[in-house]
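RETRY 2/3 - previous attempt timed out on the joint model. Re-submitting the same 524-residue input unchanged.
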Amino acid sequence: MDIDAYSLSLQLNLIFLYMDYLESRRSIRKYTGQPVDDTLLNRLFNLAARSSTTGNMQLYSVITTRSEAMKKALAPAHFNQPMVTQAPVLLTFCADFNRFNQWCKQRKAEPGYDNFQSFITALIDAVIFTQTFCMAAEREGLGICYIGTTTYNPDKIIDILEIPQHVVPITTITLGYPSEIPVQPDRLPLEAFVHHEKYNDYTPEQIDKIYTYKESLPENLKFIAENSKETLAQIFTDIRYSKVNNKHFSDVLLRVIKEQGF
Amino acid sequence: MDIDAYSLSLQLNLIFLYMDYLESRRSIRKYTGQPVDDTLLNRLFNLAARSSTTGNMQLYSVITTRSEAMKKALAPAHFNQPMVTQAPVLLTFCADFNRFNQWCKQRKAEPGYDNFQSFITALIDAVIFTQTFCMAAEREGLGICYIGTTTYNPDKIIDILEIPQHVVPITTITLGYPSEIPVQPDRLPLEAFVHHEKYNDYTPEQIDKIYTYKESLPENLKFIAENSKETLAQIFTDIRYSKVNNKHFSDVLLRVIKEQGF
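RETRY 2/3 succeeded.
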């Protein structure tokens, strides 16, 4: 370990020692070469499995990727984001009715889970499991980053990971020991997302107020200038999450959900 | 506080002191009369907001229910499960593109989020936020229980909570201080839900093995006997999560997603 790496490791330890791991968290996109121990990974999976699940059916599964060949195979499905091949471990979390259906069929029971409600139930189960895993991992000093591209290219991921019927990949995370301390991103104020007793829809003035801080940040002003846009919102609508892409990936996802038997 | 309540509180404190709060967790369906402090609740919401969110858009919102009248109004949508009215706080978590869309429109940007992919993105954001909230709450000694009926009756919940376009309620939790220590439910062994490098589909023998422990539990044997069924799987397919119900609630959910503008 060189001096810079040692210094970074000390700083990270200080953050983890003196701050609440929930409060100080940030997504990590760069990892050291330190491998993630199998025993630790299994312990984290077992902890994650303690989280809530619909009717105790555990309608999820996770596929680990450690091999370089599999990381390279998956990378294009995630638009070749560098962390996909750089992270020591990639985890693909799936909504999974396959195991439960097979059990039903072996037990003289006719599963009725080939529908949209069952898909959403399994999806929620999978995300709860994923997020508990992430928090347990972060508590251990590991860093994670969610990759949102899984619902854009589920068909490609299904092919590569040989995912069977009644299973749909939902989200992917990269996992490893942090080799960066990124600035913690801004979050909206509480009044932006908490409503009391009823949903209190926003006035234009409230919307202005909620987004003032985000719009004032130097990095966001830089984004606007670099992309020759007028507002930060246009960065989202015209570049990052455009209507034409959303429509296209909606069609893909709906087709895959049906093809997988929901 | 009477002796029994005092003794229970001591036992709960011992559990929380000496065990990992992730490992020892269980859903709580019965609560003491102790109210949940507003400052604490706000702190937990802010902690939850530190969790990952797509493009830092925070596509979620939460509606708190403390009033007895609102709990009673919501109860039928949750099939009158007793904890809905018994818990000091009910929280309805929503996939929310309304705030973001309003911001876009006020900033000369045309939102392209009226589609299925955007709904799923917001749903995943909402569940990540919910689960982080739950874990932060449990760490404080609070108890939670997920109520899965939210995706069955989203239309009723939308009416009662006056939820606007581009917002869909996804899940509800009950929250309060535990007045019970239920037995921790069983979970499947690791090999049931973890796959390495590729999805390794199950042989009939593996399915038998995975479900052996669950099928051997006295409470499950009791369920089978009480309902005059042959297998535990039939309890799920014929009673708890039947095909006819799943189909019906699939239609409702798909209709509501469209009606809400996705």
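Chain A has eleven helices and five strands. Closing ticket.
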